[in-house]
Backbone:
């Protein structure tokens, strides 16, 4: 399926700014973290459209939000496409999703909290349980926490505002900066891209809007916390990040989710645009509860000399389908996709990455680490395409799978299409188990079997973990330790 | 000091049950018996050297004592502080105070040495030990002339032969075992590293610790003066004596000992021609999986 991306509508790559710097901010101390998923608060939604979806509901959502007509139109068109469009015929089994049994819009509070004081107590409690530490709040640029379908609390540090950086929820972004949003919304991922992108475009709510002006380096990572906390609450957040020429931004999303017995759908759309010599780093560590279908479309455009990195870690969920992709549209643009997936019993992680080389001297690396346990399934799909004329492009794809049990499954489906001869390509795939010798060595130092396996598994995904800020790395290692309750079979 | 006079010495020098007591031990790998009945008693405060030609079963003995699941105990008993070691998992043995310096330490990709050491110390001594961990680590690093940067490196990964051996000694120093088995820790070290390692071991000697030092070289034994020397050939201890036995082997090789044993009317199973040896076994190589499919998928 060829994706349509209307490059003409996007601003062309413009003049020179040699100042391109990459900055990875790491928290200095390990933040204490306990496992906090698996609970939910009683919170009465203030308004909901009820279960299921029709054209009226789509229009109601738009009206409730007080949107401009063009957005309502896009929503309706997307909804119509959603009806026509089939689910992907490949990948994980999505047949069990009942689109009529999902709430598409839930609005928990009337207004958005500008200050922490204005945030309702119940929601604050939720944040406490989520464990967003006080220190971290100060440390962070702004905490954009999505509660159900609406962003309820949002703060932007003053220095960010002074720099002209916009970091807000998508609804506010649309209200306050309609001209920017209109210019870019749906340009990287048009609603016709796939059925779930169409659904998201029709019913989206929340998500983040980030705009970094020319030459601005956002020194601290922008962070957002997401969770699902309503029965069958569909989360359709929409994120758009625009990094103007020579700018730098690191966006981080992390989430834990309460455990629910009924199926839930999370279907986000994330669009990134890195202008000439800009850098966008987008880090995700997600741990959905076991009933969530996590079907996310993430795509980025990188112009001349720009760099985009997707750092994507997936634990939990019933089914995850996610293939962050990058279109390298300008000379010397760089793509990096590093992903880690952990599939425990009953879970399917169908993930990977895709890079389109559309300009010369572009580079890409796709690195995937998957761990499967019990009856877990992991499928890696990597797709690299190098168009004719993209000479001196370099691409490397690597996929390592670790199987912890006999019944688990791991597969790789790499696709490499190259129309240009003057390129350098590498790809490698490995499958391994926890080695007996490694296990014995660690146990001979006093580590229990479980600890030893955890160490080996964490070591295996270390190439991913080391890309994360410290507190996320610590969190991920702990989450993995929790998955290791049973010994290897 | 009284050296072992005979092959029977089930009880320690002070008359109590030895810290580590091995009796009639037989060990098999993949159904093939390698160790054919070994008796050995090691007390805290003692240093025992085990010498033997390549392939005689020294490492097999060491692995079996530490509980490597590949090594099957077909007969015999092993107790540690009076407890049945054979019933214990390797980690239980380690926490109880048994330690093995591996002849070929295993690399663990992605696991940082420092984090791993902290976990191991915590496993052996409990949470309270974590408080003094840093200070102690610095001290041991200095002693072993190891750079702090090792702590960020992945366990044994890309370590040179000598670095691996030092890292083993470091772990031993941090875990303070009651009985340490050192499998050819002196092999492959340059002169300086050798001295550092030997000094490290000597620094750990004391009344509260016993050593089983497996080695090919008397040079090591000149530094670490053993109390007892055992010669292991063909899966059996065929001769035991004081330190002078090591000198004798160093000068004349195993030939005279083998003749002596044969003269006693006992059989000696010799390693194959050319001193064939079970060479280093690296952790099972990761299986290469050719791409399952080259078909085009729409993503
Ligand atoms: N894992 C194994 N699989 C198969 N055979 C083994 C294994 N380990 C040891 N052996 C065999 O058992 C015998 C004893 O080996 P072992 O490693 O114990 O000898 P060693 O005395 O330590 O020799 P070296 O001095 O060379 O280290 C050898 O014949 C070896 O080939
Ligand atoms: Mg050996």
Residues:
């Amino acid at each position: 399926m060829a994706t349509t991306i209307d490059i003409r509508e996007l601003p062309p790559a413009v003049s020179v700014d040699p100042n391109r710097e990459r900055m990875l901010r790491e928290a200095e101390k390990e933040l204490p973290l306990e496992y906090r998923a698996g609970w939910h608060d009683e919170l009465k939604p203030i308004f909901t459209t009820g279960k299921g979806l029709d054209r009226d509901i789509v229009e109601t959502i738009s009206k409730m939000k007080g949107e401009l007509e063009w957005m309502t139109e896009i929503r309706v068109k997307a909804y119509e496409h959603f009806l026509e469009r089939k689910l992907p015929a490949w990948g994980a089994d999505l047949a069990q999703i009942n689109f009529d049994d999902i709430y598409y819009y839930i609005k928990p509070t009337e207004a958005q909290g500008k200050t922490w004081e204005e945030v309702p107590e119940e929601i604050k409690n939720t944040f406490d349980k989520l464990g967003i530490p006080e220190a971290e709040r100060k440390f962070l640029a702004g905490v954009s926490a999505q509660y159900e379908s609406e962003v309820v609390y949002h703060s932007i540090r003053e220095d960010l505002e002074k720099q002209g950086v916009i970091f807000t929820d998508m609804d506010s972004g649309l209200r306050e900066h309609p001209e920017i949003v209109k210019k870019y919304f749906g340009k990287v991922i048009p609603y016709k891209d796939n059925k779930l992108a169409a659904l998201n475009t029709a019913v989206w709510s929340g998500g983040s809007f980030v705009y970094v002006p020319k030459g601005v380096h956002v020194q601290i990572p922008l962070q957002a916390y997401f969770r699902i906390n309503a029965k069958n609450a569909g989360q359709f957040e929409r994120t758009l990040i625009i990094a103007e020429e020579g700018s730098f931004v690191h966006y981080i999303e992390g989430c834990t989710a309460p455990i629910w017995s009924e199926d839930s759908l999370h279907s986000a759309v994330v669009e990134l645009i890195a202008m000439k010599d800009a850098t966008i780093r987008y880090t995700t560590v997600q741990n959905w509860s076991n009933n969530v279908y996590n079907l996310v479309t993430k795509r980025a455009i990188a112009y001349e000399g720009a760099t985009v990195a997707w750092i994507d870690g997936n634990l939990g969920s019933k089914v995850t389908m996610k293939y962050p992709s990058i279109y390298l549209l300008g000379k010397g643009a760089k793509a990096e996709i590093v992903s880690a997936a952990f599939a425990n019993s009953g879970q399917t992680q169908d993930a990977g990455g895709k890079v389109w080389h559309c300009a010369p001297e572009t580079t890409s690396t796709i690195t995937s680490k998957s761990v499967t346990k019990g009856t877990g399934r992991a499928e890696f799909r990597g797709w690299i395409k190098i168009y004719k004329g993209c000479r001196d492009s370099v691409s490397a794809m690597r996929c390592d799978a670790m199987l912890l049990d006999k019944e688990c499954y791991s597969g790789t489906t790499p696709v490499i299409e190259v129309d240009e001869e003057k390129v350098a390509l590498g790809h490698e795939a490995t499958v391994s188990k926890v080695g007996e010798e490694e296990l014995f060595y660690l146990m001979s130092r006093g580590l229990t079997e479980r600890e030893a396996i955890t160490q080996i598994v964490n070591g295996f995904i270390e190439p991913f973990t080391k890309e994360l800020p410290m507190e996320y790395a610590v969190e991920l290692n702990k989450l993995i330790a929790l998955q290791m309750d049973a010994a290897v079979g | 000091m009284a050296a072992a006079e005979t092959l029977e010495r089930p009880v320690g020098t002070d008359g109590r049950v030895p810290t580590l007591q091995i009796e009639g031990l037989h060990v098999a790998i993949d159904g093939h018996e390698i160790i054919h009945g070994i008796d050995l008693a090691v007390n805290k405060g003692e240093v025992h050297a085990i010498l033997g030609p390549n392939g005689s079963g020294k490492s097999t003995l060491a692995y079996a004592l530490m509980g490597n699941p590949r090594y099957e105990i077909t007969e015999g008993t092993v107790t540690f502080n009076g407890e049945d070691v054979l019933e214990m998992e390797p980690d239980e043995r380690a926490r109880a105070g048994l330690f093995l310096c591996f002849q070929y330490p295993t690399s663990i990709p992605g696991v940082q040495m420092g984090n791993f050491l902290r976990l191991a110390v915590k496993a052996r001594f409990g949470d309270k030990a974590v408080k003094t961990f840093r200070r102690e680590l610095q001290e041991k690093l200095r002693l072993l002339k190891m750079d702090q940067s090792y702590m960020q490196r992945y366990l044994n990964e890309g370590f040179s032969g000598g670095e691996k051996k030092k890292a083993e000694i470091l772990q031993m120093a941090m875990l303070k075992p009651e009985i340490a088995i050192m499998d050819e820790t002196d092999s492959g070290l340059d002169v300086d590293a050798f001295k550092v390692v030997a000094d490290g071991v000597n620094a750990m000697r004391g009344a509260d610790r016993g050593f089983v030092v497996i080695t090919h070289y008397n040079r090591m034994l000149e530094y670490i003066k053993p109390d007892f020397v055992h010669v292991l050939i063909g899966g059996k201890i065929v001769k035991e004596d004081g330190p002078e036995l090591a000198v004798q082997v160093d000068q004349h090789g195993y030939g005279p000992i083998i003749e002596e044993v044969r003269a006693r009317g006992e059989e000696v199973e010799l390693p194959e021609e050319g001193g064939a040896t079970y060479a280093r076994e690296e952790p099972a190589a990761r299986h290469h999986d050719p791409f399952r499919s080259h078909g085009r998928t729409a993503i």
